[in-house]
Amino acid sequence: MVITNGYKQNENERLIDIVNLTQLEAEAKQIIPAGGFGYITSGSEDEFTLQANRKAFQHRQIVPRSLSNIEKPQTDTNVFGIDLKTPIIMAPAAAQGLAHVKGEADTAKGVAKAGALMTESTYSSASIADVAAGGGGAPQFFQLYMSKNWDFNRSILDEAKKAGVKAIILTVDATVGGYREADIVNHFQFPIPMANLVKFSQGDGEGKGISEIYAAAAQKIGPKDVQRIIDYTDLPVIVKGIESPEDALYAIGAGAAGVYVSNHGGRQLNGGPASFDVLESVAKAVNHQVPVLFDSGVRRGSDVFKALALGADLVGIGRPAFFGLALGGADGVFSVFEHLNNELKIVMQLAGTKTVADIKHAKLLNIQY
Amino acid sequence: MVITNGYKQNENERLIDIVNLTQLEAEAKQIIPAGGFGYITSGSEDEFTLQANRKAFQHRQIVPRSLSNIEKPQTDTNVFGIDLKTPIIMAPAAAQGLAHVKGEADTAKGVAKAGALMTESTYSSASIADVAAGGGGAPQFFQLYMSKNWDFNRSILDEAKKAGVKAIILTVDATVGGYREADIVNHFQFPIPMANLVKFSQGDGEGKGISEIYAAAAQKIGPKDVQRIIDYTDLPVIVKGIESPEDALYAIGAGAAGVYVSNHGGRQLNGGPASFDVLESVAKAVNHQVPVLFDSGVRRGSDVFKALALGADLVGIGRPAFFGLALGGADGVFSVFEHLNNELKIVMQLAGTKTVADIKHAKLLNIQY
Amino acid sequence: MVITNGYKQNENERLIDIVNLTQLEAEAKQIIPAGGFGYITSGSEDEFTLQANRKAFQHRQIVPRSLSNIEKPQTDTNVFGIDLKTPIIMAPAAAQGLAHVKGEADTAKGVAKAGALMTESTYSSASIADVAAGGGGAPQFFQLYMSKNWDFNRSILDEAKKAGVKAIILTVDATVGGYREADIVNHFQFPIPMANLVKFSQGDGEGKGISEIYAAAAQKIGPKDVQRIIDYTDLPVIVKGIESPEDALYAIGAGAAGVYVSNHGGRQLNGGPASFDVLESVAKAVNHQVPVLFDSGVRRGSDVFKALALGADLVGIGRPAFFGLALGGADGVFSVFEHLNNELKIVMQLAGTKTVADIKHAKLLNIQY
Amino acid sequence: MVITNGYKQNENERLIDIVNLTQLEAEAKQIIPAGGFGYITSGSEDEFTLQANRKAFQHRQIVPRSLSNIEKPQTDTNVFGIDLKTPIIMAPAAAQGLAHVKGEADTAKGVAKAGALMTESTYSSASIADVAAGGGGAPQFFQLYMSKNWDFNRSILDEAKKAGVKAIILTVDATVGGYREADIVNHFQFPIPMANLVKFSQGDGEGKGISEIYAAAAQKIGPKDVQRIIDYTDLPVIVKGIESPEDALYAIGAGAAGVYVSNHGGRQLNGGPASFDVLESVAKAVNHQVPVLFDSGVRRGSDVFKALALGADLVGIGRPAFFGLALGGADGVFSVFEHLNNELKIVMQLAGTKTVADIKHAKLLNIQY
């Protein structure tokens, strides 16, 4: 363990045995300090939406299909012109140094090993350059928390572009921080610097609370901001935090190259629906004009299957990658992706779907349990 | 602490730290005597309706809206020609001396500091005059439990008018007391006199049980009573305890200046619906003819948002104010209002609604969890 | 206490304090021997239907009505030409000697004091004559478990008629005993003789298991049996155990003077619906041709109200009367009826219904909680 | 007890007292080694589908029917031209040596005594010949896990045919093993050889994990395989693991003589619906062209009734037979069938259905609890 500003950072580097991603959380809790663990796992207010995210997958059921004459299901896919070995991606998630001393660099390396897509947060512990250098060559997207300071925005987008990221994910559901009680109860302040913030006047985040970090972020985001980032970067811009058909069309109208359905893992607006429960209506509105990305609550291969069947093209996981990172560094992250992808393959075979494209034609039932 | 008739009244005067209003209840339980705490928090019969009041907010979900290009949401509103800094109001609630030695005078002072609306109960511990004098200048409504004795009614309405209240809230859902088992189990009798009752033959409530208090109240209330009070006071009369479109229209027909949707916090008719679950149908029937007030079960900023979105113009809290009053007097009440309003502002920002008026156009989903 | 065949029979004779009928069960459990208590309270199989009987009342909600201009609600009613002070009746229930040494004689006395209707079971501990003699003059119905032996049927109907019963309730949902596991686990056999069986060859039930008792009952019951009993007794015959519109019409077609909706308190067919959940459809089919009686799961004044609102004319309680009988004999039974009727009156006032007839026009909501 | 490869095999041979099949599981847990018990009772992933299988029976309710004028209900039935004393059959279930040293031979003997239908798994502990020899003459079906090796398939079908089985059940929902976590946590490997595998190169299963066993099975199964087995055996072929109308029609199109609705007891695709919840739609699609078999979650006579009412012709049990086998060998299995059939008879009587054919016309309600 490394002690950084009084916070114990894990240094494990190993493949890990996984029974399931839910149990992994309990294991990770043993080794991630309480403040960091609270920050990673908690949601906002009374966590209704956080819990709804998990329950929602039970709202739809997969029809087992036999006699489908398939075998060896393949999880390969191509989205945004990028070949991936799995539709499961790393969701944007800040401050991975809370789980492991190498932070996002190790995450990216594990993701690369799994043939998946990495996304790096503006608020990452490791810098864009370090992640690119140490990340094992995973295709990367860069997630932007738009600052009030456009010098900052331009600078960080320049860095991201220089590092070769293939798209920008603009998060629009966090113009103010969700009311996360665990952080308040824990008096949580970021012990680990946020590398990308270091050279800006707003500081590097170290020793700051979540609300201070968000205070520097733009509270006011509209379609013109989407257009401005497209114009500046000339990269595909994916708008993240879309939970309604209206916003999806609004984003596409502003030039978005992708729509990312997410409620921020239940960390922002509490009292809203599960992300899974709005996915289908958003995907129908998008109607294949642009790819649909999805996250919030995914823990099972069957969850991934269901999200794909309702219209997602890529399915993100966040917290489980933190757990894998804490327990095994890059190899731990790889183990998480491999495990989840293996669960997915079993579901694909039993549902009679040989490819990711087949999943998109799979029927789900909606029986109430 | 002051001991009044063997009952320990709190004297705290301080701002309080609040994580959320649910946890505040547990803190308040430590310092409010058991009989008073039971009276304040319990509902009738097996508390089905009390519990339904909380569950009901989960029946509807707020759609997070991004790209709305708003910031700094404002909670100011104007109802009945009164400027308020928040749509959250103090609901009529009797006997606040159970929580604090200064009772409603301190509540009114905290409410004033929050820029909210105070309503004072007929059965208040502090007199109308004392609340007006010590209440910090909050706009006030006076809530009337209509007596069988019209001398009493006229006298108390005179006092209220003299004190400058801006409207009368006539409670019509309590023509008999709900069957509240906690009070029976606790053999609860009011230890603190009810100031407004002192000069009447019916006594001041001290040492009486709830059923004795209600016995003096009119059991028979009809539209003519509404008209009589309007005629006598020449003030706007809001009818409180409306739970159906039928009664809303009936009240408006009788001249009501406002409709107050409430099931008395689950304290009266048990086996009825959650107040939140009937709000939309009542508001639709009212159709903006008069303002709609709402209470019963509100604990979260998201609850306030949802009630406004379904048609409420003002949203009341009752028990949480008792908890703040016990823990911090006027400043404690202020802390409660400020906390809840801050939660509301976060929800407003994340839902893309800059004003209270915007909230009224917000769409809610109804997914079952 | 009296020890009868090793079974301790209670002898209490006193008014009892009641908070609610649910808590009364816990009190009664302290003084009714385990075997008897298991027989009284248990249902069949895994008690799905028993539990559904309670849950079902939450499926419908009473709309509080204000401004209704009523007071002093009255529970008087007249059914089958009989004046009653309450629509709550004693449901047919066997073997009340398990709760009290005086059994049904005391029950009838308490029921009489409450101005309610007594029904006596074929399998009562006290004889028809003793109940009539000691029962305080309550109007009585006699419940018939039809025997395979028509000599027995004729004899017991003769006795009932001689005792002045005003109607026969023919139970048709128990042609075989439900599979009640508590009785099997307890190796329960009736310790108290069944007085009406004494003079018949089939024995008096003492020392017999439930299945042996039922073995003497007719397994095969059809409309001709209804007609035969009508013809023999020239009394109104009410068919009990109707749970479908089809059977209700079938019974009326066979000459039934009343339809009794009940699933035998969840003691017979498990896996069936709550009795309350089928009441409305049965009542609509009956369409006021004959009175509708109802029981199964009633514990609250609001339950009684809801059943009346959905079409019942009389609402029965069974187990709660056993608890009152055990704890207080005739006066205990009276306390139970009085308490429940008082709860009903509060609900009536708050729902704006002055009479039992008004309740029948009350609207219920069906919101899911 | 016999110790086989370190695994304790039970040897009990006795009739057993049964309160219900749920409690029987707890008893069996005391005497079946943990690894075997985990294998028998667990489901896949987080067991959502396993649990849904039980909950689903509560989705439909049996209407008690009185005045039906029936008695002595009969459970006799004839399916595939075979006379059976009960519609309850032994579902295909592998490795019964885990419960008892005599394995399927004893199961078949108990099933024969109950007048029911035996089905034997490819992966049975006892060989086809031994089961036929020791099985007491129960009519038997043989369940085939189709191997990648057609020499194996032909050989085992030859043996089955030689042993006189009356139909082949082709399992198609297990082209890969479900993700069963209990087996992983227990490091479970089959301690008991699988007799039918002994002479093939793939080995006899002993000391192998479940995934190794499934690896030898065909992952790719289509309608041509159904046809091939029909052609080879000239026996009726029933396709097992059908959960949708589409697959049912597909199977019948391929020549299937029966459709077996099952989700493999929740052991294969998790995240799918309860088997009971899809039964009705499958049966309607089949529309009496071929018999419909059903299993997954059956524990109660009322469950059997409900499945028959929704379209099943035969209803299978699996795990409860293991419990009976462990506790009492052939007589234990007989006790299980007899108990469940007795529960069914009580339900039949109370639902007014004299025959299995009558059940098929019984109406079920669908009220939500």
UniProtKB/TrEMBL annotation, chains A, B, C, D:
<feature type="active site" description="Proton acceptor">
    <location>
        <position position="264"/>
    </location>
</feature>
<feature type="binding site">
    <location>
        <position position="264"/>
    </location>
    <ligand>
        <name>glyoxylate</name>
    </ligand>
</feature>
<feature type="binding site">
    <location>
        <position position="121"/>
    </location>
    <ligand>
        <name>FMN</name>
    </ligand>
</feature>
<dbReference type="InterPro" id="IPR013785">
    <property type="entry name" value="Aldolase_TIM"/>
</dbReference>
<dbReference type="InterPro" id="IPR008259">
    <property type="entry name" value="FMN_hydac_DH_AS"/>
</dbReference>
<protein>
    <recommendedName>
        <fullName>L-lactate oxidase</fullName>
        <ecNumber>1.1.3.15</ecNumber>
    </recommendedName>
</protein>
<comment type="similarity">
    <text>Belongs to the FMN-dependent alpha-hydroxy acid dehydrogenase family.</text>
</comment>
<dbReference type="Pfam" id="PF01070">
    <property type="entry name" value="FMN_dh"/>
</dbReference>
<feature type="binding site">
    <location>
        <position position="240"/>
    </location>
    <ligand>
        <name>FMN</name>
    </ligand>
</feature>
<dbReference type="InterPro" id="IPR037396">
    <property type="entry name" value="FMN_HAD"/>
</dbReference>
<keyword id="KW-0288">FMN</keyword>
<dbReference type="InterPro" id="IPR012133">
    <property type="entry name" value="Alpha-hydoxy_acid_DH_FMN"/>
</dbReference>
<keyword id="KW-0285">Flavoprotein</keyword>
<feature type="binding site">
    <location>
        <position position="180"/>
    </location>
    <ligand>
        <name>glyoxylate</name>
    </ligand>
</feature>
<feature type="binding site">
    <location>
        <position position="39"/>
    </location>
    <ligand>
        <name>glyoxylate</name>
    </ligand>
</feature>
<feature type="binding site">
    <location>
        <begin position="318"/>
        <end position="319"/>
    </location>
    <ligand>
        <name>FMN</name>
    </ligand>
</feature>
<dbReference type="InterPro" id="IPR000262">
    <property type="entry name" value="FMN-dep_DH"/>
</dbReference>
<feature type="domain" description="FMN hydroxy acid dehydrogenase">
    <location>
        <begin position="13"/>
        <end position="369"/>
    </location>
</feature>
<dbReference type="GO" id="GO:0003973">
    <property type="term" value="F:(S)-2-hydroxy-acid oxidase activity"/>
</dbReference>
<feature type="binding site">
    <location>
        <position position="262"/>
    </location>
    <ligand>
        <name>FMN</name>
    </ligand>
</feature>
<dbReference type="GO" id="GO:0010181">
    <property type="term" value="F:FMN binding"/>
</dbReference>
<comment type="subunit">
    <text>Homotetramer.</text>
</comment>
<feature type="binding site">
    <location>
        <position position="267"/>
    </location>
    <ligand>
        <name>glyoxylate</name>
    </ligand>
</feature>
<keyword id="KW-0560">Oxidoreductase</keyword>
<feature type="binding site">
    <location>
        <position position="145"/>
    </location>
    <ligand>
        <name>glyoxylate</name>
    </ligand>
</feature>
<feature type="binding site">
    <location>
        <position position="143"/>
    </location>
    <ligand>
        <name>FMN</name>
    </ligand>
</feature>
<feature type="binding site">
    <location>
        <begin position="295"/>
        <end position="299"/>
    </location>
    <ligand>
        <name>FMN</name>
    </ligand>
</feature>
<feature type="binding site">
    <location>
        <begin position="92"/>
        <end position="94"/>
    </location>
    <ligand>
        <name>FMN</name>
    </ligand>
</feature>
<feature type="binding site">
    <location>
        <position position="171"/>
    </location>
    <ligand>
        <name>FMN</name>
    </ligand>
</feature>
